[in-house]
Amino acid sequence: MNLFQKNTLLLLSALFLFSACNKEEAPQKQTLPQSVSTMSAKAENLPLNFTYPAKLVSDYDVIIKPQVSGVIVEKLFKAGDLIKKGQTLFIIEQDKFKASVNSAYGKALMARANFDNASKDYNRSKTLYNKGAISQKEYDSALANFNNTKANLTSARADLENARIDLAYTEIKAPFDGIVGDALINIGDYVSSSSTELVRITNLNPIYADFYISDTDKLNIVRNTQDGKWDLSNS
């Protein structure tokens, strides 16, 4: 081996030793600790929620129908209005009903006059009969006329009252407080007593939700309530 080769070998050996020393002396890189979030677990009451399809219902929910027949001449509300008991909703044409009242009133006056005359005749006949001044037949005739005119007066008064009631029925009023829906008829329509549907009225106070709970949910509610897992005291 010549001198050049020896020097080259010594130089490579020195470089190898220097590199090995540097690797041994290099400090180890340290890993920093990672920050983490922590949470404390604790027992807590949570609200129970059950959702079911429901239908709102009311104790008072009716479709109004007229009590007399006739032509609608006025509508006094809008759909969705809150109305009060006794508030007028529709008016039926009143002319013929007013005429009926006037006619019944005239008949009642006539019946009253006939009764007054028959009453006077009967009292007179009774006095004369007790004195023996008239026959039994004449007395019986006066009594029969008195009873007939009395019955006629009662009937005439009833007819007058019915005519007045029918006239009052031409103003169709709300039977209770509530909200009205859409009118089911129009002005000018002829409506029939007790058959034509006019409008729906619903009382909103109180109002209820009508819904169905499944048998599975019912069983879970009963079981968990009895076990003390669920508290329904505030529900």
Automatic annotation (TrEMBL):
This is Efflux RND transporter periplasmic adaptor subunit. SUPFAM superfamilies: HlyD-like secretion proteins. One of its GO terms (molecular function) is efflux transmembrane transporter activity. Pfam families: BSH_RND (PF25917), HH_MFP_RND (PF25876). InterPro entries: MdtA-like_BSH, MdtA-like_HH, RND_pump_MFP. The keyword RNA-binding does not apply. The keyword Signal applies. Belongs to the membrane fusion protein (MFP) (TC 8.A.1) family. Residues 62-197 form the Multidrug resistance protein MdtA-like barrel-sandwich hybrid domain. Residues 102-170 form the Multidrug resistance protein MdtA-like alpha-helical hairpin domain. GO terms for cellular component: cell envelope; plasma membrane. One of its GO terms (biological process) is response to antibiotic. PROSITE patterns: PROKAR_LIPOPROTEIN. Residues 1-22 form the signal peptide. The lineage of its organism: Bacteria, Pseudomonadati, Campylobacterota, Epsilonproteobacteria, Campylobacterales. Keywords: Signal. Gene3D superfamilies: 2.40.30.170, 2.40.50.100, Helix hairpin bin.
